[in-house]
């Protein structure tokens, strides 16, 4: 199948003129990564809940994560989240102490329970420890199988040290890191250093796995539209 042509370019310093800022849609990224035949993926969401994010934005961030979850559940086919298929975990990050694993990889075996668990994550935070967030994701994902971190951030950190060396090490062991950059002035130097390169001949693109949005509302709008393109109407969950 064409998706076996997927190449993940993780080496530091590779430059593709004009391609680094070109973004695919959320559903295209999931299709590139997961649209082929098994094996399935381990996915760790890393959701920023630091002090710069208000309560409304936090709700929008969770709605967007739930949309991504729904797309994953339908990729490569319906009910792809299961103990023997895709497995899900979630890390909430902000200050060092509130940065924690909210639910471990595979805690909830099927889609509905994972969806409810994301909806229930409380917002706690002040500073931003991206490095610890990646470390916790790394532990959850392990070193085997297909592994994805789906991180939301503005790229700024003020606790825990520079996350870029850890991200580089994770990518060298095969972990794919996709970053949703939120804000009108995100730290793209950090974001682009953290994110993986992905390419697929199906879309004839080689890009950083980075999606950029000015607001969480815009991010949620994009994921909701992406979900409608993938998930059949009768399977769409009600927003709660």
Automatic annotation (TrEMBL):
Pfam families: VWA
This protein's name: Uncharacterized protein LOC106150911 isoform X1
Keywords: Signal
Taxonomic superkingdom: Eukaryota
Signal peptide: 1-23
Record lineage: Eukaryota, Metazoa, Spiralia, Lophotrochozoa, Brachiopoda
Domain annotation VWFA: ranges: 42-196
């Amino acid at each position: 199948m064409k998706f076996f042509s997927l190449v993940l370019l993780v080496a530091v310093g590779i430059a593709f003129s004009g391609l680094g800022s070109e973004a695919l849609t959320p559903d295209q990224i999931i299709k590139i990564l997961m649209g082929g035949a098994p094996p399935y993926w381990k996915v760790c969401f890393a959701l920023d809940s630091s002090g710069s994010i208000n309560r409304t934005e936090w709700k929008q961030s969770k709605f967007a994560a739930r949309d991504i979850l729904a797309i994953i559940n339908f990729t490569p086919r319906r009910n792809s989240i299961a103990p023997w298929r895709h497995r899900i975990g979630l890390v909430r990050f902000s200050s060092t102490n509130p940065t924690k694993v909210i639910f471990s990889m595979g805690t909830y075996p099927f889609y509905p329970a994972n969806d409810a668990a994301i909806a229930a994550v409380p917002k706690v935070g002040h500073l931003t420890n991206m490095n610890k967030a990646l470390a916790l994701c790394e532990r959850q994902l392990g070193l085997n199988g297909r592994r994805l971190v789906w991180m939301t951030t503005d790229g700024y950190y003020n606790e825990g040290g520079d996350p870029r060396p850890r991200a580089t090490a994770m990518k060298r062991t095969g972990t794919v890191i996709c970053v949703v950059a939120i804000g009108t002035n995100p730290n793209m130097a950090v974001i682009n250093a953290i994110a993986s390169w992905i390419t697929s001949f199906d879309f004839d693109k080689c890009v950083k796995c980075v999606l950029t949005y000015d607001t969480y509302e815009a991010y949620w709008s994009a994921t909701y539209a992406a979900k409608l393109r993938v998930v059949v109407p009768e399977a769409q969950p009600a927003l709660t």
